[in-house]
């Protein structure tokens, strides 16, 4: 024992060096072998090698993707597959709706989503909390069997408590209720609303992981950004809107933020529900019975359109939305409209957008003039020259912050949901979107975006060059950290 103490006291620098080489080398090899993005691999290997002890610890916490969605049970798999393969649910034929080039996009969706493109869906656009929240609460109050609610932010404010009251009434009626909130998003208000939900006997959980096994902490780098509300398995709400009072004009007044949400009927409801069921089981290990949670998808309102859900996240559906957008930009023939609060596409998506513009496609990109995330706004500004230089039109909207995530292609194809066009949404977050084929919905979204453009200022290369050097340098430095903003 004394000899070991002597060795430790005399040779501890050598032992520390050997330990750092072993730990750092192991972590560097792991990063090089498991990261598919060369920039991520280079970044992590650099961090590890520059700090051989602290670097591997940081990599252990934030660099290793431990999220692996468990396979849901064979019984549920069969049930869901049976429900989506039901002959009463027609698979979509888009030949009468979309031009021929969209057929290849439909095939791409088949291979990315693993959900069928189903006909018979009704999609209703809802503007802001003034339209969306009352409609959602009304649906909750009409629920007779089940309510599944998943969101990123669920604030403990006047609007959040209205949802809690409605869910409490549903529980009192004997309705099965499950609420899933992201662990990071739950901390946007104090005290977290999860406490109130549990106090009211509403079954609720936080979407989180425990990265080291002994530290109770959310895996802050990977988040569930999905927004889903499914009532009795037959009516759903989805889109980009969280639950917070800043979207309600009666509360926020002149500072009301804008957003867009969607009420959904038809076969796509079952797809949205299956995503929730999967996330709920991953988080709580509870198996939700098919008969209770899946209702009839017949009798959707008119008009009816082909639609399907698109999942993406740091699991087996990684880069799902990224690949769908690459395909959509490639088939565009006339006009691409993009509205995003956080426009930070990677170089691959930038290449697809710029290539479309160089082909003569009109590309309009609308971003907020006033952004709720200052650092993201700086990073966005640092990258805008790359699209403007290739003849894309970039518009900074006036007025209050708009959180909408909307894309349309050629007045036919719409892409709506929770995904922002930034590295976090496209690679790190669990997101849920819908692709919808239909001229009516596309026209409504186009009108929304065009209305924003009418009240926007076009960003030019001269405007960007006029920004003082110190601010351009600041923007560029923050842009380097954009994957983690």
Largest sheet: 15 strands, mixed
**Low-pLDDT stretches:** 68-85, 211-219
What is the CATH class of the largest domain?
Alpha Beta
- The coarse overall form would be globular
Q: Count the helices. How many?
A: 19
User: What is the mean pLDDT?
Assistant: 86
Q: Tell me the name of the CATH homologous superfamily of the largest domain.
A: Endonuclease Chain A
Q: Give me the CATH architecture of the largest domain, please.
A: 2-Layer Sandwich
Given helix and strand content, the structural type is alpha+beta
- The strand order across the widest sheet is 4-3-2-5-6-7-1-8-14-13-12-9-10-11-15
Tell me the number of strands: 15
Helix content: 40-55%
Quick recap of the structure?
The protein has 485 residues and is an alpha+beta fold. The protein is built from 19 helices and 15 strands.
Description:
This protein is α+β, with helices and mostly antiparallel strands. The chain folds into three domains: 12-63; 74-97 and 118-307, Endonuclease Chain A (Endonuclease, Chain A), CATH 3.30.870.10; 320-484, 2-Layer Sandwich (Endonuclease, Chain A), CATH 3.30.870. The protein is built from 19 helices and 15 strands. A 15-stranded mixed beta sheet has the order 4-3-2-5-6-7-1-8-14-13-12-9-10-11-15, sandwiched between helices. A hairpin with a 3-residue loop joins strand 5 (228-231) and strand 6 (235-239). Helix 1 (2-34) runs antiparallel to helix 2, helix 1 crosses helix 3 and helix 2 runs antiparallel to helix 3 (54-63). The longest helix has 33 residues, at 2-34. It is globular, with a radius of gyration of 24 Å. The N and C termini lie far apart (50 Å). The relative contact order is 0.12. The model is unreliable at 68-85 and 211-219 (pLDDT under 50).
């Amino acid at each position: 024992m004394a000899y070991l103490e002597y060795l430790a006291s005399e040779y501890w620098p050598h032992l520390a060096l050997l330990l750092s080489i072993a730990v750092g080398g192991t972590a560097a090899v792991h990063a090089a072998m498991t990261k598919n993005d060369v920039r991520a691999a280079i970044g992590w290997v650099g961090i590890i090698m520059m700090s051989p002890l602290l670097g591997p610890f940081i990599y252990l916490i934030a660099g290793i993707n431990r999220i692996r969605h468990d396979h849901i049970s064979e019984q549920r798999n069969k049930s869901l597959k049976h429900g989506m393969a039901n002959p009463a649910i027609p698979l979509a034929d888009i030949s009468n709706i979309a031009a021929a080039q969209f057929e290849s996009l439909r095939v791409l969706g088949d291979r990315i989503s693993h959900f069928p493109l189903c006909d018979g869906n009704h999609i209703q656009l809802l503007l802001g909390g003034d339209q969306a929240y009352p409609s959602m609460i009304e649906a909750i109050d009409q629920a007779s069997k089940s309510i599944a609610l998943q969101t990123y932010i669920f604030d403990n404010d006047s609007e959040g408590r209205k949802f809690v009251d409605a869910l409490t009434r549903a529980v009192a009626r004997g309705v099965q209720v499950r609420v899933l909130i992201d662990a990071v998003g739950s901390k946007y208000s104090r005290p977290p609303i999860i406490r109130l939900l549990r106090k009211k006997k509403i079954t609720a959980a936080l979407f989180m992981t425990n990265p080291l096994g002994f530290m109770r902490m959310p895996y802050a780098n990977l988040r569930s950004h999905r927004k889903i509300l499914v009532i009795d398995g037959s009516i759903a709400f989805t889109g980009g809107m969280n639950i917070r009072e800043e979207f309600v004009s009666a509360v926020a007044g002149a500072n009301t933020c804008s957003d867009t949400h969607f009420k959904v009927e038809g076969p796509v409801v079952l797809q949205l529900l299956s995503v929730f069921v999967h996330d709920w089981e991953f988080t709580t290990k509870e198996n939700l019975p098919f008969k209770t949670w899946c209702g009839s998808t017949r009798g959707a309102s008119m008009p009816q359109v082909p639609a399907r859900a698109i999942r993406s996240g740091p699991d087996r559906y990684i880069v799902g939305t990224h690949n769908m957008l690459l395909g959509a930009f490639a088939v565009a023939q006339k006009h691409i409209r993009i509205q995003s609060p956080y426009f930070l596409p990677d170089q691959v998506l930038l290449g697809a957008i710029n290539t479309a513009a160089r082909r003569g496609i009109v590309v309009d990109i609308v971003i907020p003039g006033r952004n709720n995330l200052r650092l993201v706004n700086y990073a966005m500004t640092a990258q805008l020259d790359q699209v403007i230089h290739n003849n894309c039109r970039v518009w900074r909207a006036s007025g209050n912050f708009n959180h909408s995530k909307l894309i349309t292609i050629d007045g036919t194809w719409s892409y709506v949901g929770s995904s922002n066009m930034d590295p976090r949404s496209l690679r790190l977050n669990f997101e849920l979107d819908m692709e919808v084929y239909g001229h009516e919905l596309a026209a409504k979204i186009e009108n929304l975006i065009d209305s924003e453009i009418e009240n926007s200022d076009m960003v030019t290369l001269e405007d960007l060059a006029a920004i003082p050097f110190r601010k351009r340098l600041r923007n560029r430095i923050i842009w380097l950290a954009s994957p983690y903003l």
